[in-house]
DNA sequence: CTAGGGTTAG
């Protein structure tokens, strides 16, 4: 409550500041009282006011005959402000003036249309123009590039060359951007060659977009090469490279470049911080994120726009939801993204009440919720078993004219199912106006598992199985199931399907951040330097947790092995290795944070709960679904989760495989 | 008259 009040107050003072900062502009009457063709005054007025509508009025009523330069200024203003309607009006006037065949004016009109998002108008004009120069072509290409129509821009380029127009650095940087957008390394290299041919390769704009293009195509090495050869660099060039590394999950390289950037005298911008913080959130690097936060504050930057939101997201995604709240309170401007990030954070931490409160406050604050907002709040409600609230918000979607998508329906099935209303959940699925998805049946199955309803569970499991022909994990597991009952022909069939469709199973891994470096583990990791210590620790822990009640759950292992081997297999799941490593390398009493790229395994979850009792530590596990805050032997998730494995196990147990 | 880099769920 209070945080919103303080923001409102803050915004209030900003507004008055902003108003007083506007230079005095001419009013309509002031303009009329002056000599009408004092065009300098008009132009100044045009540039300093929000939009020179009064100037437009004067043209409309015929009391002003603009010259070429005033038309251009008007068009430029329309372009800058994205005023399509006004721009069209100006175009209309131009068509009735002596400048209708003026190439420069036509180019400005074309670009105005393109920049205002009306590519049809731009293209119509482009096609009708009797003669086109390089700027015409460039404006059209740029227009396509900025409106995400990369292919349209790229096909225009050969036509341009055929007509004998020579591209310049403006044309080429736009084209390079297009190649990056569609991540086409092939086209990218060809355009790169053109940059050399037309002597634009050393231009900063072209160079920066080349760096970005290669990075987007996944060729960081070539991006680096172009970057190093770039004689004239600026912040954007650095950011393109840093963002490239960050996007690819190469946080360490990104950070190294960040350090180098500053050593070489370039100032980090909001873009730089956003990219780095973004990579911290996906990796869950809280310590590095905090360091960047401090760095950001020291640089004197305000938490505006993207940076603020990425910082907030970093804390939420790294498991520090209360720090995220603090950042939220310090944002200069709260928008839908900040609110959604908070809601998603609450949902992932199972904080239903906080999510509901946050939702209500954002509505009061006047922020219009979108589909993500509703999905987040519904998820939060279902996880916290806030049945009535969840139903209420689902109904509220209609009022905001948001058509529920399959994900929203899934959340409701989950909500009803967790509350034990299995029949309601089932009939809800049957009454749904859209086709139920795998996730929907999965949610019902999860609920059946939770409330031990085997009959409906079998039904749901079959639906899941029918609808999920393409998921890589399904095939691997299915092959395992067939193998375990000796149906080798079926195994071969599944393997063939996998091979034909090029499906690959992503290896499961876990990681921890210790003293600014990330340590990654895969199951049965044999290569780690501390391997022996880790295994020894687990031997001890296993003994201790078994004494206080831990029973290894071997049902999750689908291999042809005897009981002892199964236990051995479980023991070295990646999250367990990461935990042992963290226990060995962190000070006593500190919170341990483990990240995992798939959902945490049921046996490991149980083992970690017992370990939290033995070692008296708080352990936070972030998997792809949510945060597990494990302390004193219990977990914030309330032991509810559903893995693909358990779906298939349910399926196997209820069919005669 | 024309150009390059960024956040949000499952």
UniProtKB/TrEMBL annotation:
Q: Please name the Gene3D superfamilies in this protein's record.
A: Tetratricopeptide repeat domain
Q: What is this protein called?
A: DYW domain-containing protein
Where does it primarily localize? Answer: mitochondrion
Q: Which gene encodes it?
A: Vigan.01G100600
Q: Where in the cell is it found?
A: Mitochondrion
Could you tell me which PANTHER family the record lists for this protein? Answer: PENTATRICOPEPTIDE REPEAT-CONTAINING PROTEIN, SELENIUM BINDING PROTEIN
**A GO cellular component annotation in the UniProt record:** mitochondrion
Outline the PPR repeats, range by range.
102-132, 133-167, 234-268, 335-369, 370-404
Q: Which organism is it from?
A: Vigna angularis var. angularis
Q: Which GO terms describe its molecular function?
A: RNA binding; zinc ion binding
Q: Which segments constitute the DYW domain?
A: 549-641
Alphabetically sorted, this entry's keywords are: Mitochondrion, Repeat, Transit peptide
The cross-references to InterPro entries, in alphabetical order and at most eight, read: DYW_dom, E_motif, PPR_At4g14850-like_plant, PPR_rpt, TPR-like_helical_dom_sf
Example GO biological process: RNA modification
Alphabetical list of Pfam families matching this protein: DYW_deaminase, E_motif, PPR, PPR_2
Family, per entry: Belongs to the PPR family. PCMP-H subfamily.
